[in-house]
Hints:
This protein is of the alpha+beta class. Among the domains are: about 70-215, no CATH class; about 385-590, Beta-galactosidase, Chain A, domain 5, CATH 2.70.98.70. Helices cover about 25% and strands about 25% of the residues. The strands form 7 sheets. Strands 10, 11, 12, 13, 14, 15, 16, 17, 18 and 23 form a 10-stranded antiparallel beta sheet that branches. Strands 5-6-7-8-9 form a 5-stranded antiparallel beta sheet, with helices on one face. A hairpin with a 5-residue loop joins strand 16 and strand 17. The radius of gyration is 26 Å and the shape is elongated. The relative contact order is 0.10.
Amino acid sequence: MPARHLRTTRTTLRLMIPLLVSAAVLAAVLVIPWGGSEPEAAPDPTVSHTAEPPTAPPTPVKQNTYTCPAYSGIDHTNPVANLYQDKFTWGTTPPTKVGDGKGNINWRMNPDKNPSWYMWLHSLRWLGQGIEAGARGDKRALQRVSNIARDWVNDNPYSWKSDVGAYESTMHRTNVLICLRQAVLSGLHVVKLPLTYTWLDDALMEHAWFLQKNYSGDWNHGTDESLALFGIGCTLQRNDLKKLASDRLTSAIKTSIDTQGSTNEQSTAYAQFNYALWGRAIDVLRKCGVDPGTTIIARRRELAKWLALATNSLGNLPQLGDSEVVRTTPVPGTVLEYAGTLGQHGIRPTQRIGIFDAGYIFGRTGWGEKRPFTQESTYSIRFGPSQKLHGHNDHTSVTYTSRGRDILIDGGHAGYKIDDWRFWAKSQFAHNELTVKSATGHPETRLTRSSIGATSEFYELQDSPGAGIDRTRDVLVLKDPDLMVVLDRGTSSSDEDYSTLWHLPSDQKVVVSGNDRAVAAKPGDRVKTTLLQIPFRQQATPIEVVSGSQDPIQGWHYSTIDKRAAAPVVKFNRSGHEASILSVIAPSRANAVVSYTTSQQGSRMLVNLKVDGVTTVIAVSADGTLQRIK
């Protein structure tokens, strides 16, 4: 597929502030109207797709209601008993007394200087259990959460824009105030707010004004804001607010999810969250008498296909961008059902490979047709527009699963606290790519060539990560034997330190044999990974393995923002004005023999690989072309 010109976008400091804690957790607890549409095959990577389906939208359900969207799980660790003590719990921070025990909260408190903790304090979502108890008639609980919410209103007068925690949590807090309002009506068995609670409607109108004036833009944060604004309009019967919010949603969907199903978040976990979020948008609009139209439904359907293709053979999404390890949600009646249940339910997709203009390649050996789903090999490759929103500096990076386990992993998601760990996790050094020590850019990366065959796929990617520095990565992925061949080439106007990095799972132990071989395996496992450094135009240098280093930070894996483990990184290094590094990643049985020889055929080098008794021959051309010839 020919590469297209893709624009770049600069990331602002504000986007570093926590927007959502975990896409996986949030997506799981949202009220989502799972559709019953027929599953469809994944998108053909060589064909452009139209945005809209020919089908007419369903008739809106005119209930004129806005359902409390719950509390994203943040309420689970904040029982009513703790609310009576003004204690707040989030993440790994112990329960913290944030008030005087009477609902008078210190809204500036932040004991660990953690921006996420601070934002969720201001979100008021931690009041969820108390609000629900109040809705059931517990007047004491209702009074306590009302006191805390009103204290926030009193202590944070409009406009609270100068306090980033209060600012970023506005849409979440808006929903909590709506939930509280509903709890007052149901808990007190009234149809109109008592005079003692009119402050709630005043607070909602202030939040509406703030949301009108401070729209974050067309990404998940802006979508949440529009839904909250719509919720106020629906609750207070303000058609002007409903119209503004629905107009924003109608416009935002065209940027948030493109016609191929890619989101603009540059994160797989946030892609799945967006699938849930836009499903909620459809539900919210319909329940308050607004037709969601065809575009949201169409783009969301394409996103479902994208997520299915992204799903690896373990049933997880690869950790791309700000993503924890998250499982694919098996949405019934969609293509996600098959992917999310490891092939146990649903209709099997037919497309193996997806190439997306937004900068993603997802591929697999199959969908479980001739071997178990978990025994297929799957991979991801990143390219495309420069880093923005929840993206990392991961262009040209690959992930790989095979033989029922992770083979090559991403460094993961270190959370939103701005420190050295987050800097590392987002940097080139936390990904499987050719790194250049002095490079600081976040370039647009071009997919310059691709070729899809029955038993192999070839891709070539190019970019310039710094002044006078050029990178080219050629990737060949094979089926039977399942393995990956990668040729990295770099040129620079001055001497540079180049390293091809291979990040391995934290359970792996690595043994290096000479300059051309490292073998990684979990002790006692039946699977190993052989990493070969085959000389091509340059002599191989000693292989380096780093695990658990803190100065400089290297050799770690974040499975979640709170779980960091030492994980080995195999490094193939070069120095000078150019680098040429040929790698082979070969998963196999633990007792398998993996060997290779090389020979010349004209201007091509032939690599004869033998993996567990299966021989394959790879041709490496002078221009970097990698071709399977046997």
